Task: inverse folding
């Protein structure tokens, strides 16, 4: 379903969703996974600090299982079918040792580019903050200088009807956003 935009936007943005219905038999090729990570690598960052660090697991390998273990029960139900799980972590200090107060903003830009590239390749991505950061740190032996930020499930979309209850409701809900009038507080062109 295409987003109802006030003016046309890029097709990927207009059609992108964060589905939960993943095809559990689909795999992701190394070429696509590398392209998705490469898109994230080239995201802008303050002073070119690039605080993002990725832990990447393909379904069936140890890293995938470790990331999956850190997810909340609701997210585990559907994310187990993804072809890959990516845990985004971040360095919270700059190279000079000072606090990097904007690391989450920079990671968000990297994730945004990762998501657009994923959809460009005909795959889907779903970002989650519903995970236990302490479990992730322990399971993946994350170095102390990194903090977990978000988990992204990537794979091939399946039919919504394979889900049920609240999962199905969310999967088939109308795609909505606040209007521009609600989010642009000054300077909205007419």
Result:
């Amino acid at each position: 379903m295409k987003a109802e935009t006030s003016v046309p936007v890029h097709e990927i943005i207009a059609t992108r969703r964060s589905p939960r219905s993943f095809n559990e038999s689909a795999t992701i090729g190394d070429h696509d996974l590398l392209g998705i990570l490469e898109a994230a690598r080239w995201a802008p960052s303050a002073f070119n600090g690039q605080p993002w660090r990725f832990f990447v697991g393909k379904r069936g390998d140890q890293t995938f299982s470790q990331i999956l273990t850190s997810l909340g029960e609701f997210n585990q139900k559907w994310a187990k079918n993804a072809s890959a799980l990516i845990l985004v972590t971040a360095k919270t200090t700059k190279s000079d040792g000072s606090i990097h107060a904007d690391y989450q903003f920079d990671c968000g830009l990297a994730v945004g580019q990762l998501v657009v590239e994923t959809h460009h390749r005909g795959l889907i991505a779903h970002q989650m903050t519903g995970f236990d950061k302490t479990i992730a740190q322990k399971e993946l032996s994350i170095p102390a200088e990194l903090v977990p930020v978000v988990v992204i499930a990537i794979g091939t979309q399946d039919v919504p009807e394979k889900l049920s209850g609240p999962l199905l409701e969310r999967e088939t809900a109308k795609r909505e956003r606040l209007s521009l009038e609600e989010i642009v507080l000054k300077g909205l062109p007419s």
Observations:
- The chain has a mean pLDDT of 96.
- The helical segments are 11-15, 30-41, 62-70, 73-79, 103-120, 133-139, 165-172, 180-183.
- The chain has eight helices and four strands.
